[in-house]
Write a structure and sequence with these properties.
By secondary structure, the chain is mostly beta strands. It contains one helix and 21 strands. It folds into three domains: about 80 residues, no CATH class; about 30 residues, no CATH class; about 120 residues, Immunoglobulin-like. The protein is elongated, with a radius of gyration of 35 Å.
C-alpha cells in the first residue's frame, strides 16, 4: 500500500506505520508532521520552510538497530550539510579519560590541545630599565602572563624617531639591548610576545625618553679583568 498525504495549515497529521508500507508527506504550509517508522519501511519527506519534521526511525518505542535520528529538521538539506560539513576540530580521549582537541593550523600542522588549555594573556605591560644613553645597555622586564600550556616568550626591540611610528631593530631579539649611535635622539621600546598552541599575544613597553648621544663617535672596549680605566683603548671625540 502507498499513501500520499498533503498537509496545509493549520492541519496536523500523525502517521504510524505498522506494515511494509511507504508514506510520502508533502508539507506546503506552517504545519507539523510526526512520523513513527518501524524497521523495513521507507519514508520520503518534502519539507518547505517554515515547517518542522520530527523523525524517529525506531518506531513508537524509539531506537532501532541502525540508531535513530532525533530532533527537528527545518530543511531537508540540513542533515546532509551537517554530515558533510568541514570539521575544524576533533575531540579525542586518552586512555586515562583526558580529553584532547585535535586541530590543524594555517601552516598545515596537526596540533593536540590538552583539556583545560587557555590562550596566552599578558596581564601587565613589560618594562625597560637601564641608562638611556648610547653605549649603555637596556634590559627588558617581562609583564605577567597567564595561559596553558605555558606560553613561549620572545622579544623584539624597536626604534622610533617620534615615539609613534616604530620599526624593529634587526637582530635585537633578546632580553637586553646595547644602544648604538643610530639610537641617538630616538626612542626605544621592547615588545614581549607569548605564544602557545591556542595562539599568541604581544604587548609593548612604554617608550624610553630621548636617547642621549655619546661623547664619543666610536668606542672600543678590551676585555681586561678586572676592568680599569685602561679598558677604554680607542676613542674619537665628537
Amino acid at each position: 500500500m502507498s499513501v500520499t498525504i498533503i498537509l496545509q495549515a493549520p492541519n496536523t497529521a500523525t502517521i504510524t506505520q505498522t506494515g511494509a508500507v511507504s508514506a510520502t508527506i508533502q508539507q506546503s504550509g506552517a504545519v507539523s508532521a510526526t512520523i513513527q517508522q518501524v524497521v523495513g519501511q521507507g519514508v520520503s519527506v518534502q519539507n518547505v520552510l517554515p515547517n518542522s519534521v520530527t523523525i524517529n526511525t525506531g518506531g513508537a518505542s524509539g531506537g532501532g538497530s541502525w540508531g535513530s535520528i532525533t530532533g527537528t529538521i527545518t530543511d531537508q538539506t540540513d542533515l546532509v550539510t551537517y554530515v558533510n560539513r568541514t570539521r575544524t576540530s576533533f575531540d579525542m580521549q586518552s586512555q586515562d579519560g583526558s580529553t584532547f582537541t585535535i586541530v590543524v593550523n594555517n601552516a598545515g600542522q596537526l596540533l593536540v590541545i590538552p583539556e583545560g588549555s587557555t590562550a596566552p594573556v599578558i596581564t601587565t605591560l613589560p618594562t625597560t630599565t637601564g641608562t638611556e644613553k648610547v653605549w649603555y645597555t637596556l634590559a627588558a622586564i617581562a609583564g605577567n602572563v597567564t595561559g596553558s600550556p605555558t606560553p613561549t616568550r620572545t622579544w623584539q626591540w624597536q626604534r622610533s624617531a617620534n615615539g609613534t611610528d616604530w620599526a624593529n631593530i634587526s637582530g635585537a631579539d633578546t632580553t637586553t639591548y646595547t644602544l648604538v649611535a643610530d639610537d641617538a635622539n630616538k626612542y626605544i621600546r621592547v615588545q614581549q610576545t607569548e605564544a602557545n598552541v591556542l595562539g599568541s599575544v604581544t604587548a609593548s613597553s612604554a617608550a624610553t625618553g630621548l636617547i642621549s648621544a655619546s661623547v664619543f663617535t666610536s668606542t672600543q672596549w678590551q676585555n681586561i679583568n678586572p676592568v680599569t680605566w685602561e679598558a677604554l683603548t680607542d676613542n674619537t671625540w665628537n
